[in-house]
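Person: I keep going back and forth on a fold encoding question. Show me how you would write down a chain together with its backbone fold. Please set it down just below, with no commentary around it:
Helper:
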Amino acid sequence: MKKTSESVEKFRKGDSGPKYLFRGPHCEWGIIVLKPGEKMGAHGHNSVVEDFFFLEGSPNIIVSGQQQRVFPGDAVRIEPGEAHDIINDTQQQVKLVFIKTPYLPDDKYSC
């Protein structure tokens, strides 16, 4: 068994961006916080499936060039090869859970 807490893990940008709770050996997952005006950054994966579950806020998600507003309680699955980005174009914080599987930390490309 492995245990951690959101309170002990760190966000990439200090108080926003991704925060990994578990990395490997089978999957990786964590939380992303986007402040107003922030975006995740357009990217894709060759083999990894990435799921998002939205907890707070209503950002725009862009998948393969198609933009859609998402809301708390929405879940989105990104298939391999689908370029994606999440843009917080609102005045509220966005918080979501991400899950990536299989665990292939180098399976990412910028768009």
